[in-house]
Model the fold of this input.
Amino acid sequence: MQTILTDINGTHELSLEALLRGARTIFLTGEINSAMALDFARQMLLFSQDDPSAPVKVFLDSPGGEIDAGLVIYDILQSSPAPIELNCIGHAYSMAAILFASGRHGRYLLPHSKVMIHEPLIPYGVGGKTSSIQSIASALVQTKKEMEQLLAKHTGQPQGKIAEATRTDCFFTAKEAVAFGIADGIHGFDEMLG
Done:
């Protein structure tokens, strides 16, 4: 999408992506996958080279997706020298909820945004030898514990409460997400832009 800007030097046509980069803003929308994680890493690399201490705003609207790809984004969120503010503008489900909860420099939702946490899903059909199925089950149990630990760490809830909440799809309104410790507050879009 192209945008026309007019300033003292005349009229310029810029892509929306270029304008967002200039404003140090990233949109994480859609399914979390390796392409999204790589794109996020590239943008954060550029921001870090430009000014490692200037804040970055991330706008999140995602149904979740691949845990491994999500953990790449998680690691960047946790170790970035730039402060990253996370804003949920719609929904943050599954892995996206973990990313949202992990924000260290502000986690805000629009008033009607929703968050959902649950146990990890089997990413592919289970079949094959018994030993293979046992290996898959063992890996899923380990992943479940790891996701519970991350949510417990970032929400302040005990891991047992996280385990109970994630047995089924557990949906939160914006107010409930704040009360549970997934978010810091509810903001209007104007406040998110500020």
